[in-house]
Design a protein that fits this description.
The structure holds two protein chains of two kinds. The longest helix of chain A is centred in the middle third of the chain and has 26 residues. The two termini of chain A are 29 Å apart. Chain A contains six helices and two strands; from the N terminus they run H-H-H-H-H-H-E-E. Chain A is 64% helix and 6% strand. In chain A, helix 1 packs antiparallel against helix 2 and helix 2 packs parallel to helix 6. Chain A is elongated, with a radius of gyration of 20 Å. Chain A has one domain. By secondary structure, chain B is mostly helical. Chain B has two domains: 90 residues; 44 residues. The N and C termini of chain B lie far apart (65 Å). The chains are: A mainly alpha, B mainly alpha. The interface between A and B is large, with 59 and 46 residues.
């Protein structure tokens, strides 16, 4: 049986959604309350890391493959850059908050502050995906000791196929 | 008990954790001491009224502890033994002593604890952020307004650094390169 004991699995089954939702909450209300993209992204990555630790990496990688994670990572970085580049087209200056200048929402509302929530979401995607990617890489990597004392690294991908 | 005294207690706690982390022979104890230092830093940020930093610090600390345990404990990591020579020790002591003397000298030019520069220099840009931040950016959280609007370039650079470092880690640890290296050997 892969993963940890049944107690850990049951607790994980109950708690993983709340950790994920808390991360999403921290990201999307980053312009109103303490938090923001970085902290929320780390908490989102934590929920997937908990899933990986409790159920084994096969279970987690079926839900979120390394390829999808790398795509989310790059997508977050690109979204951040695009939000900055739109400032040239609509405001004349790189990184200007053009949405706030055009549609100044009411302060303390969720839909306010222009591009700041968009940038928070981009950073949250980027940080969460990249931290989970590093965790996958670290947990797939194994160092084995051969008989002559030489250490070698062995990769074990879950589907059993070695990427060439 | 003022904030200053609480900070002194917290810093001594973190210093003790750092000494234990360096000196202990057991790798697991060392990693756990690092976690204690991180939690101490987070609590210190809370007392300094920086909840954004406290949230980031405590969550990154948890992930880093998992990474460190995953990367060190489960593997055959050979502990380093032996002592450095007397000459090298003397160089290290002199360099560290010089650094600390410079730090003590540099700290003298900073104002007293609890009296930031922006309170005495009215033309500082930070005063403009504090006064007009909500009006100009519409963000209620002034930290988000600074890091994503006034100082957006910094955050873009930080995101680039993170992206490149993750790219480098994945490039070093990927399957493809190691498979090719194994075939050549």
């Amino acid at each position: 049986m892969k993963g940890m004991s049944v107690i850990v699995k049951t607790v994980t089954r109950w708690i993983k959604v709340f950790i994920f939702l808390y991360g999403v909450y921290i990201v999307i209300t980053g312009h109103l309350t303490p938090g923001g993209g970085f902290a929320g992204g780390v908490i989102i990555a934590c929920s997937y890391i908990l899933l990986t630790l409790a159920y084994g990496k096969e279970f987690a990688l079926q839900r979120l493959s390394p390829r999808t994670t790398a795509g989310l990572d790059s997508g977050g970085a690109l979204l951040f850059l695009v939000a900055a580049l739109y400032g040239i087209g609509y405001g004349g200056i790189f990184f200007v908050n053009f949405l706030q200048k055009r549609y100044p929402g009411r302060a303390f509302q969720l839909a306010s502050a222009g591009i700041i929530p968009i940038c928070n979401i981009a950073i949250g995607l980027k940080v969460g995906a990249s931290l989970f990617l590093v965790f996958i890489i670290l947990s797939v990597l194994r160092i084995t000791k051969e008989k002559d004392g030489k250490q070698s690294m062995v990769k074990r991908w879950p589907e059993g196929k070695e990427e060439e | 008990m003022g904030t200053e005294n609480i900070l002194i207690v917290l810093l001594s706690f973190m210093l003790a954790g750092a000494l234990i982390a360096v000196e202990t022979k057991n790798l697991l104890s060392s990693v756990i001491s690092l976690g204690a230092i991180g939690v101490g830093t987070s609590v210190a940020f809370l007392f300094l009224m920086a909840p954004d930093l406290a949230i980031v610090q405590v969550s990154v600390e948890v992930v880093m502890i998992i990474f460190l345990i995953r990367a060190t404990i489960a593997r055959d990591v050979i502990p380093q033994r032996g002592h450095i020579g007397w000459g090298a020790l003397a160089v290290v002591v002199i360099l560290l002593g010089g650094l600390m003397a410079f730090g003590a000298y540099a700290f003298r030019s900073i104002g007293r604890f609890g009296e930031p520069i922006i309170a005495s220099v009215l033309a500082a840009p930070s005063n403009r952020y504090l006064e007009k931040g909500l009006q100009e950016t519409g963000a209620a959280n002034i930290v988000a307004a600074v890091i994503l609007d006034y100082r957006g370039y910094d955050t873009l650079g930080e995101a680039t650094v993170l992206f490149v470092s993750i790219l480098g880690a994945i490039t070093i640890l990927r399957v493809k390169g190691w498979a090719r290296a194994g075939r050549q050997r």
